[in-house]
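RETRY 2/3 - previous attempt timed out on the joint model. Re-submitting the same 343-residue input unchanged.
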Amino acid sequence: MTPRQRLWFFVIAAAGLAACYLWAFAGLPGFGNYPGPYGPAILHEVIGRTNATGVVSAVNFEYRGFDTVGEEFILFTAAAGMSVVLRRLRDEREEDSSPAAQAESREIPATSAAVRVLTLLMVGPTAVIGWWLATHAQTNPSGGFQGGVILATAFFLVYLSGEFIVFRRLRPDAVIDASEAIGAGGFAAIGVTAVAMSLPYLYNYLPLGTIPGAISSSGTIALISFLVGIEVASAFVLIIGELLDQTLLRQAAGREGSS
Amino acid sequence: MTPNAVMDILQVTVLVLVAAGATVVVRTRDRVRLVLVLSAYGMLLAILFFVFQAPDVTLSELTVGAIALPLILLLTIAKVRKPQ
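RETRY 2/3 succeeded.
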């Protein structure tokens, strides 16, 4: 194909794509006009039916709870895969004896006082915000996923402040593994419990409370959001922790090599 | 100005900013700088979702786009980077 032929090929294909694109655009509903039947139907009945004012959470953890179980296990599998790929085999040692790696083993400068104070001050508020988001899915647009990530961020702030030893002590692998399993398994177990009570999978069988939007309202929605928060926080601490270990392992290997 | 007109202007402004931000992300070549630009772009996307009245997606985008993804990318770069 000569460059000239190629150019013609491109022009024809681009013109065809542009025509189809514009044709599709012309058929779109007006901006902000949702033509589907489900949105209005759910908005009409969701609060009366679930006592949850966090409508998005109600959809996520009840109407399409089965989808959310799948998404939860995607994260669970990703974290598990990460630990398998990045595990340190018994006879494995990271070796890098190049002069560059030796130069890397110089003393790492201590974290500055400003960073230490700032990050340590943020640990408490960050943990509270994460916890609050994970436990208030039934009342507002928060949810276990967002809360879990922010909760995990509190751990990384401890690391960022230079408190490596405290950071390691805060995340014993056994505890993190267990809490991740409890979060993921708990979600699935709530669904199976409903089946055992001869109800549909993930049916909201807990008392819904009396006041819409109260903390104690919405039955399984609040419980599932909390479990998702635990799972997501553990998964992120696990994933980032593995990566941090890898980076620290490298630095440690470099330091051993120089001495 | 009616509240609707203000909202329209806000939405168009944020859309233009997001398009510009995406271009900057694609045009950035240095890896570490790219992660920082990407984090700022995640922030911009969060504002976009907020302006279009999706507070729950805003929260997800804030946590994933502005915190989790840059953190994972930075650590990965630190791991694979050739010592200089």
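The CA atoms of residues 39 and 135 of chain A lie 25 Å apart. Closing ticket.
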